[in-house]
Amino acid sequence: MVNLKIAIIADQITTATIGYEDNCTCYNITPLNYKFIFKIFKPDLFFVESAWQGYRNSWKFKIASYPDHPKRSNAKLIKVVDYAKRLGIPTVFWNKEDGVHFDRFIDSVKHFEYIFTVDENCIPKYQEAVSSKITVNTMMFAVQPKIHYFKGFDFKHKRANFAGSYSHHIHSKRREIQDMMFESVCSAGLGLTVFDRNSGRDSENYRYPKLDNMSVKSSVSYKQTADIYRDHMLSLNVNTIEDSPTMFSRRLIEILACGGIVITNNTLAVQKMFAKYCHVIETKQQIDEIVERVTRDGLSDDDLVMAKAGSEYVLANFTWTNNLEMIKQVVGLK
């Protein structure tokens, strides 16, 4: 297979997951090195995601729009995109933040030739906002099977886990679901270990509530999350977007890929693609019934069969190998 050379601007998770792909070489693009990379290595495509930092924070405040901070600009990104176009390198933008942050990225997105969004509902908005010459497609979250994969059941911790963030000032519905889940697993005596993605941020807006039987630990590396999902008897997931047929938490498919037992809130995407492989809840009573059963009896054979099937399903359908093949087809690369 021919090696695919990708010039990339992305945050750490996406860069890592694509970087593990066989027959794929990634070159991290910064505002300083892009001419050298494009001329010397001649990448097959220029891939940019809706990144907040980029490689070593080199794209912080340079991709999204910040209306309250007019000095923050995407001018350097546009310069790189235009340079890639002059060299005939296809330019691809993937908005992993749709539909919440459609407006924050549209001023950057419209300069690219190929747009991919995690939220199918946003396609009409893109078609209205950008040139008719620009191609718009859906590309969902994917896992990297070299990191998140099933290797049998060995739950070392008879507890639940949640790896992610919590916020007091935004996403009130998401916070309500988290509070319901956290209170259920803690009050049942199962207990909860949280790995706080925002442990490095000082603001009280990101602090988790204090509950009995709940411990909050610092953030972990992306690779470490795989063992967290394999080692804990239950993994909690919350999806912020509930009305999209294609948008779901990246954490959901990572847990499933590892053979984790998932409790997740109900969404359109969950119903469409993942309901057979998760414990899907909408009410406090539903989660209490699951948690009390697991606390009392442990995991059932049905739980394990469901989890193994979920891993097989995700690893067959939601991988970066599949996503890169789709990008190549859309762009016209062999």
Automatic annotation (TrEMBL):
Pfam families assigned: Glyco_trans_1_2 (PF13524)
Domain Spore protein YkvP/CgeB glycosyl transferase-like: residue ranges: 201-327
Protein name: Glycosyltransferase family 1 protein
Organism, scientific name: Francisella noatunensis
